Amino acid sequence: MNWLQWTIRGIAFLYPITLSAQFAFYDSLHGMYWSQIEPPSFEDFGRCQIVHEGLGYILGSAGALYEFEASRKNPWRRLPQPGPYLIRNFYALAKDAIWATVIAPQLYKVALYYWNGAAWSAVASPNVYNI
């Protein structure tokens, strides 16, 4: 019984340390600190990409693309959908140059769209399955 009490005390003592450890990371190879930031919504997130320091994108499970720009007061911004379609995959070159594949069920294929920083536009392409 003594062993069980000490185990419970150890877990109770170390649990807060374990929780705080997941919010800050140090990359000793590159000498950088990483920290966890609050997500833009409560959906599941899959693919993400960092374009450069302070600018990144993350794709939500509902097909929404979110932009993170550290210089803004509210750093997260949800980009508009490309028409009625959900984004399946994306590749960001810059803030005003993002390529995305969308599922277009009425066309029975995956379509390609381009973000110019202000609006999405469809791009003529063969049936694209991945970027």
What does this structure look like?
There is one protein chain. The protein is an alpha+beta fold and 131 residues long. The chain has 1 helix and 10 strands, in the order H-E-E-E-E-E-E-E-E-E-E. Mean pLDDT is 77; it is low at 14-23.
Summarize the structure.
Helix content is 15%, strand content 44%.
Characteristics:
single chain, 131 residues, alpha+beta, four-stranded antiparallel β-sheet, 44% strand, globular
List the SSEs and their pairings:
Layout: H1 2-21, E1 24-27, E2 32-35, E3 45-52, E4 55-60, E5 65-69, E6 76-78, E7 87-94, E8 97-104, E9 109-115, E10 120-123
- Taking all residues together, what is the mean pLDDT? 77
In N-to-C order, the SSE pattern is HEEEEEEEEEE
Q: What strand line-up does the widest sheet have? A: 3-4-5-6
Counted up, domains total 2
3D shape: globular
C-alpha-based Rg, rounded: 21 Å
The fraction of residues assigned to DSSP E strands is 35-45%
Q: DSSP helix count? A: 1
What structural category arises from helix and sheet content?
alpha+beta
Oligomer: single chain
Please mark out the parts with pLDDT under 50 across 5 or more consecutive residues, or reply none: 14-23
Major beta-sheet overview: 4 strands, antiparallel
Beginning-to-end CA distance, first to last residue: 58 Å
* Helix fraction bin: 10-25%
Count all strands and give the number. 10
